[in-house]
């Protein structure tokens, strides 16, 4: 990123002592500060219920946050004090109307002292059930409209189905315009996600073959080795379909499958993404039974340690039927992708932590000459999102030596493998874009609406199927056996993180 000239503003973080703020927001802001990407006089106001003073907040919340989670922790000695002077703590209950009145007075005082000209960003780092009440209180107590420009940042989940998402959007639109609403999906801030369009549209040898004439299928995997950690209460109400597929994975589908936009303007890119979501072939009950696999992990071994089953996790019901794994086969009904299956999978307590996109190209016709010298592997384009960031192409080539034996080789670029490379965190890019008013990497309402329209029938079909036989995979396995059969039935296979071997 190259620093832009940004307007001074106030960033108000509701949930300012919570896990998201400590793990992601404060470290991201500090990293931006060290790298010179913050406005000259950005003020940050952490709103919370706990009885901190400004100094105790800095020592008990801010300092441990940066020491533990900032990629610029080595710069603390030089930068902590000047950064900390920008942060303020405001104590109130988010359900107390009087608290919002006092907050308005506090913001006006800071604006007059700091020259932010009434520009305000409201970040809702609170549980989803608090979104509506906070928005309503902002409107009713006069915090919005602001004297300058105003923006609001909403974390996922954006509703738990289409009706709830529609109601939340209605509440938002009573206080903010669509252009002022930033629905954050941290996946879109990751370096290699931003790189997908560059790989496609800036290389002449990719775009001509980026279609159903040459691509056999697409695999998108987002796997985690961890369980639900401290999110059991939320996760048991949501599940993998709502928590991951509806937003993260479908966003990756749109970036892989979208048509070239007319320009790099925000709305041009968003328009093409929406077209993909609207072109997804709906899954009826019969298709869900065949092409939508769900699972829940039992006890098992991760990294040599025994871990408990999902139903014994904190705040999870002992008879929970919430899925912790989803695998889907879906199709995009348009001219470019007709007939090309997209295989999606995501889950917790899987063998690897990895997010990657694999495009497998169609195989060559069987040629006897080549088959005498080894098995031809399919050509692959692998985009690695995390933990490794990079891209590689798998080709077939002659092995060095006097014979003509054919082996797969890679043309490999790894962005964060070299010593000293420290890629910006996703929240750095996203917060920076909020401050400069660029919503390209945020989801527009019609994207959210189209995603829920695709996901809701899957949830309904699963509910109608009755109680699933959970748990159906052990921690440390790649989901239930049905997830493997999803591809085996099509004479295909899942690829491992390194793309070299199939998962069995």
Briefly characterize the structure.
The protein has 504 residues and is of the alpha/beta class. The protein has 14 helices and 18 strands.
Secondary structure elements and pairings:
Layout: E1 10-14, H1 19-34, E2 43-48, H2 54-69, H3 76-84, E3 87-91, H4 97-114, E4 120-124, H5 131-140, E5 150-154, H6 162-175, E6 181-183, H7 191-201, E7 215-223, H8 232-257, H9 266-279, H10 285-291, E8 292-295, E9 297-298, E10 300-302, E11 305-307, E12 325-330, E13 342-347, E14 354-361, H11 368-371, E15 380-386, E16 390-398, E17 406-414, H12 426-436, H13 445-465, E18 473-474, H14 481-488
Can you give a write-up of this model?
- This protein is α/β, with parallel strands linked by helices and 504 residues long.
- It has 2 domains: 10-155, NAD(P)-binding Rossmann-like Domain (Rossmann fold, 3-Layer(aba) Sandwich); 188-360 and 418-425 and 445-488, 2-Layer Sandwich (Dihydrodipicolinate Reductase, domain 2), CATH 3.30.360.10.
- Helix content is 37%, strand content 19%.
- The chain has 14 helices and 18 strands.
- The protein has helices at 19-34, 54-69, 76-84, 97-114, 131-140, 162-175, 191-201, 232-257, 266-279, 285-291, 368-371, 426-436, 445-465, 481-488; strands at 10-14, 43-48, 87-91, 120-124, 150-154, 181-183, 215-223, 292-295, 297-298, 300-302, 305-307, 325-330, 342-347, 354-361, 380-386, 390-398, 406-414, 473-474.
- The strands form 4 sheets. An 8-stranded mixed β-sheet has the order 8-12-13-7-14-15-16-17, sandwiched between helices. A 6-stranded parallel β-sheet has the order 3-2-1-4-5-6. A two-stranded parallel sheet has the order 9-18.
- α5 runs parallel beside α6, α6 packs antiparallel against α13 and α9 packs parallel to α13 (445-465).
- The longest helix has 26 residues, at 232-257.
- The protein is globular.
């Amino acid at each position: 990123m190259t620093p832009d000239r940004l307007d001074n503003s106030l960033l108000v973080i509701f949930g300012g002592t919570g896990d998201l703020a400590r793990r992601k927001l404060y470290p991201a802001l500090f990293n931006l500060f060290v790298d010179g990407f913050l406005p000259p006089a950005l003020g940050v106001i952490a709103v919370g219920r706990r009885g901190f003073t400004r100094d105790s907040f800095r020592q008990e919340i801010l300092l441990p946050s940066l020491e533990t989670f900032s990629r610029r922790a080595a710069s603390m000695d030089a930068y902590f004090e000047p950064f900390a002077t920008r942060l303020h703590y405001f104590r109130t209950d988010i359900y107390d109307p009087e608290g919002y009145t006092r907050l308005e007075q506090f913001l006006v005082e800071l604006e007059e002292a700091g020259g932010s000209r009434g520009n305000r960003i409201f970040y809702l780092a609170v549980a989803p059930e608090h979104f509506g009440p906070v928005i309503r209180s902002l409107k009713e107590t006069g915090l919005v409209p602001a004297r300058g420009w105003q923006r609001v940042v909403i974390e996922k989940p954006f509703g738990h189905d289409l009706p709830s998402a529609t109601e939340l959007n209605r509440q938002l639109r009573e206080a903010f315009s669509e252009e002022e609403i930033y629905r954050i999906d941290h996946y879109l801030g990751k370096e290699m996600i931003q790189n997908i369009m560059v790989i496609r549209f800036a290389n002449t040898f990719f775009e001509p073959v980026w279609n159903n004439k040459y691509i056999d299928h697409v695999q998108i995997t987002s796997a985690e080795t961890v369980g639900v950690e401290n999110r059991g209460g939320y996760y048991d109400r949501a599940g993998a379909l709502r928590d991951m597929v509806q937003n993260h994975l479908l966003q990756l589908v749109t970036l892989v499958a979208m048509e070239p936009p007319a320009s790099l303007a925000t709305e041009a890119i968003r328009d093409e993404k929406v077209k993909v979501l609207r072109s997804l072939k709906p899954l009826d009950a019969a298709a869900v039974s065949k092409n939508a696999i769900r699972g829940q992990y039992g006890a098992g071994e991760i990294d040599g340690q025994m871990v408990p089953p999902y139903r014994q996790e904190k705040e999870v019901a002992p008879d929970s039927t919430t899925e912790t794994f989803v695998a889907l086969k879906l199709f995009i009904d348009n001219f470019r992708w007709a007939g090309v299956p997209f295989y999606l999978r995501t889950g917790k307590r899987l063998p690897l932590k990895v997010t990657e996109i694999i495009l497998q190209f169609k195989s060559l016709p069987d040629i006897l000459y080549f088959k005498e010298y080894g098995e031809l592997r399919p050509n692959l384009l692998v985009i690695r999102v995390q933990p490794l960031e990079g891209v590689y192409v798998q080709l077939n080539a002659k092995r060095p030596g006097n014979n003509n034996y054919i082996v797969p080789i890679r043309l490999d670029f790894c962005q964060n493998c070299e010593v000293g490379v420290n890629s910006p965190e996703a929240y750095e890019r996203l917060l920076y874009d909020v401050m400069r008013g660029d919503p390209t990497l945020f989801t527009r309402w019609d994207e959210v609406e189209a995603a829920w329209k695709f996901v809701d029938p899957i949830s309904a079909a699963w509910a109608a199927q009755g109680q699933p036989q959970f748990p159906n995979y052990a921690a440390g396995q790649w989901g239930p056996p049905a997830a493997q059969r999803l591809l085996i039935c099509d004479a295909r296979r899942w690829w491992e993180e390194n793309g070299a071997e199939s998962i069995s």
